[in-house]
Design a protein that fits this description.
By secondary structure, the chain is mainly α. It has twelve helices and no strands. Helix 7 runs parallel beside helix 9.
């Protein structure tokens, strides 16, 4: 068991390297925004370690800069980050049933879009140490990137930061495209998800709704439809 945990952890470290590098670039831009409203490097690092969410942190920085009340901040963060509840529920179906609570809590704490994408792509049961390995690299990249953004300010040209952050989206796409090539149903779900997300961003009545809410609604609706139309039989992914 220890040997398999070690292998899963090392594999997670390898997977987490590009995630961490991408986070370093994206978090740098958040650090610049944090500096503008008077947040220190230490405070920004604590913020990033506590949230691990770009949209959530951007919302917090915006509300904090506008001197918004704590209750409003908490409610907005709950809405913006509610999608992680769905990710946690999904991953709970992939880990062994005897996984202790402390491991489940650590997994839930470090779940991000990219870590979830890499973890859900694992065939069969998911060893929690794979996520632990990714988090070991990804979390420091996020935290350090935010602090560096505060310290260095606008030292790097904006086009350089934008170019670095593109790699993160490329890595996320790389997590879902191979699975789409193997499974026609997954490919259809991916295409429908892309189209639905795009339409939700341009339709007048819908586009102004919080992005976190739109992600939750689209995820539940699309996944629910295909769960009924094309259900996965028990043990099919083992």
């Amino acid at each position: 068991m220890e040997n398999s945990n070690k292998k899963a952890y090392i594999k997670g470290l390898e997977t987490g390297i590009p995630i961490g590098l991408g986070y370093l670039a994206v978090a740098f831009t958040l650090g610049i925004q944090a500096k503008k409203i008077g947040i220190t490097a230490v405070q920004s690092a604590i913020m990033s370690f506590g949230l691990h969410a770009s949209a959530g942190e951007y919302i917090f920085i915006s509300l904090f800069g506008a001197a918004t009340g704590i209750l409003v901040m908490v409610l907005m963060e709950m809405v913006a980050n509610a999608r992680y509840l769905l990710m946690s529920c999904s991953l709970s179906q992939k880990i062994p049933e005897d996984t202790p609570l402390w491991k489940r809590l650590i997994m839930g704490y470090f779940i991000t879009d990219e870590i979830f994408g890499a973890a859900i792509a694992v065939k069969g049961k998911l060893n929690p140490y794979y996520i632990f390995g990714m988090a070991t690299v990804a979390s420091p990249g996020w935290v350090i990137g935010t602090a560096l953004g505060v310290v260095l300010g606008n030292a790097l040209p904006s086009n350089v930061i934008s170019a670095l952050s593109v790699g993160l989206f490329g890595m996320f796409i790389a997590c879902i495209i191979p699975e789409g090539k193997k499974n026609k149903i997954v490919a259809i779900v991916i295409i429908i998800s892309f189209v639905a997300s795009y339409l939700a961003s341009i339709i007048p009545v819908v586009k102004n709704i919080d992005s976190g809410i739109k992600i939750i609604v689209l995820t539940v609706v699309i996944a629910g439809i295909f769960a009924v139309v094309k259900p996965v039989k028990e043990g099919q992914n083992e």
